[in-house]
Amino acid sequence: RNQITGEHFGQLGEGIGRCTQLTELGLFFDRNQITGEHFGHLGEGIGRCTQLTRLWLRFDNNQITGEHFGQLGEGIGRCTQLTALGLQFDNNQITGEHFGRLGEGIGRCTQL
pTM of the predicted model, to two decimals? Predict the structure, then answer.
């Protein structure tokens, strides 16, 4: 268990966004104190990696509420080359209303 709170997710998202030729990315941040507000920056960074074919995000046991899932979905939606996607957000505080925009973004990934 770490004590990552998410304030630096903006920098992480920016760094990932500079890796425009990245084809595979896996981020596993289980059991931290990450909140949904930090996913906007992460989504923007992922969205710049338009060559991604495989993406895995696992954020179990955090404090994610889901308000910023739309931005994450928009970022994923720019990765139209994706052929494999894994999302795992067990034991957070996400409600169903937030999955719509995430689903819209994923829906643009026609190779999945």
Answer: 0.91
